[in-house]
Amino acid sequence: MTQTLVTDDSARAKADALDIVREIIRRAGHEIRNALNGVAVNVEVVRSRVAQREAGSGKGATAEIVSFAERAGTQIGEATALTNGLLSLVGMVLAAEAQKALHSATGGSGGSRIELMIYGDRATALVSDIKHLADRIGVGIEQDAKRVILTVSPEGKSHSKD
């Protein structure tokens, strides 16, 4: 385990911000794995039903197979949306950090907060991309003309642990 010696308030704020980002990424990974696991289960059901039909055992009507395949397709869409949100979030955080504009923020919401100084249309597009992900993992998003603030709800109030 690596330990970091923090010598001033700005270093502590940066470390706090990175801890918050790590928590967001952990939660996102959990949701993406959930969606992909659903795909795997449904594809396996489709595979086994098709094999049964080909073997002549009769089980596995076409409508039933189509239902499982459609569920797998929906779960692939979910995994894709979550992944796109995570990639946008990571890009946003890295861009903010490169500009020295990533900070932990204080707030009375009971959650941990990070503040990203990202402006204009770019901020709007990135927030749009991460909205679905944020909703799934218990992260609130606030945006104004100067910044984007992400608030991570405490673990017990938002989402199950890995």
Describe this structure in words.
- The protein is α+β, with helices and mostly antiparallel strands.
- It has one domain.
- It is 65% helix and 12% strand.
- It has 4 helices and 4 strands.
- The protein has a 4-stranded antiparallel sheet with strand order 1-2-4-3.
- Strand 3 (139-143) and strand 4 (148-152) form a beta hairpin.
- The protein is elongated.
Brief description of this entry?
This protein is of the alpha+beta class. The protein has four helices and four strands.
What does the secondary structure layout of this molecule look like, with pairings?
Blueprint: H1 9-55, H2 62-98, E1 102-105, E2 112-116, H3 120-137, E3 139-143, E4 148-152, H4 155-158
Antiparallel strand pairs: 1-2, 2-4, 3-4
Tally of DSSP helical segments: 4
- C-alpha Rg (nearest Å): 21 Å
Q: On the 0-100 scale, what is the average pLDDT?
A: 79
- Ends apart, CA distance between termini: 20 Å
Helix content: 55-70%
Number of strands: 4
Q: How large a portion of the residues is in β-strands, by DSSP E? A: 5-15%
Please state the overall shape, judged from the principal axes of the Cα atoms: elongated
Q: For the report, how would you describe the main beta sheet?
A: 4 strands, antiparallel
In total, how many domains does the architecture comprise? Answer: 1
Strand order of the largest sheet: 1-2-4-3
Weakly predicted, low-confidence segments: 1-7
- The assigned structural class equals alpha+beta
Order of helices and strands: HHEEHEEH
